[in-house]
Protein: Xanthine dehydrogenase subunit C
Organism: Shouchella clausii
Amino acid sequence: MGLPPFAEVEMNQYPPVSMPTTVEQAWAEAQKPGSTFVAGGTIVQMRREQGFDMGNRFVSLEQIRRLKTMIETDTAIYIGAFATLAECLNSKMVAQEQPLLVQALASIGAPAVRNRATLGGNIVYGKGDSIPALLVLEANVVLYHDGLATMPLSEWLQQKPNALLTEVEIGKWPDMTQRFWLYEKVGRRETFTASLVTVAGVAVLDNDQTIKELKLAVGGGEMVPHRLLEIEQRLIGKPLTNELLADVYQFIKQTGTLVGTPFATETYLRMVLANRIVSFVDGLRGGRGDGKTNDSL
């Protein structure tokens, strides 16, 4: 038996759940005190188990068909925020246009989690392992707040505006044969583990084997994912000599702010990051560059 066009479901011992069918309805419902958006529910469940206050009523996005669509244009692909990670992985369009994103999503959770977890939820969590890959792809987020607006994901992470994420816009690569990419998730175990460091990168080489374009990002643990702009500038436009790589390795080890965990100090994480980035850049000299999906300590 289907739900009516709009319903609020009451469950004993659980918060009431509103189930709007449009973005506009969802936004209006979210303005009621104590409301929290819920998509696949994996993040909400985890945070509640960790003792966080997730509000006293949920606004489910499950009935909003618009948030599940994946669309391709001449210049970009658009992935609805409610598209599950599994749906993204099974999409021929995503696989063809953004193999780096596919590599990142395949490293997140177990298959059962990917069947429920959504791309939008992984982003809104603020520390999801898809974010470093999306940052180097220079993704934009489309938001609803009494109307639609688009902003770079990098800005959204800094500002966290009060708005509903509706879709993710990722520009197409003009020529994938000229690009190399990196995605590595370093954890304490090989599978189904929270990452200590997640690093992503995209590089384009010039004809003289110098780096023409480079985008690097890091996340993992409790740190907010961010671009590594200073490291990028140290490498762009310079011959890839052993001296340059040694200089960059020491720079990464000694500078930048990573967030240590009970399992790894900040100093150790900087060393791991330095190893991964320099290994990636060194591989460019031999025409390599696609990283692994996961690596264990």
Observations:
- Confidence is low (pLDDT under 50) at residues 291-297.
- Residues 7-60 form one domain.
- The radius of gyration is 20 Å.
- DSSP finds twelve helices and 14 strands in the chain.
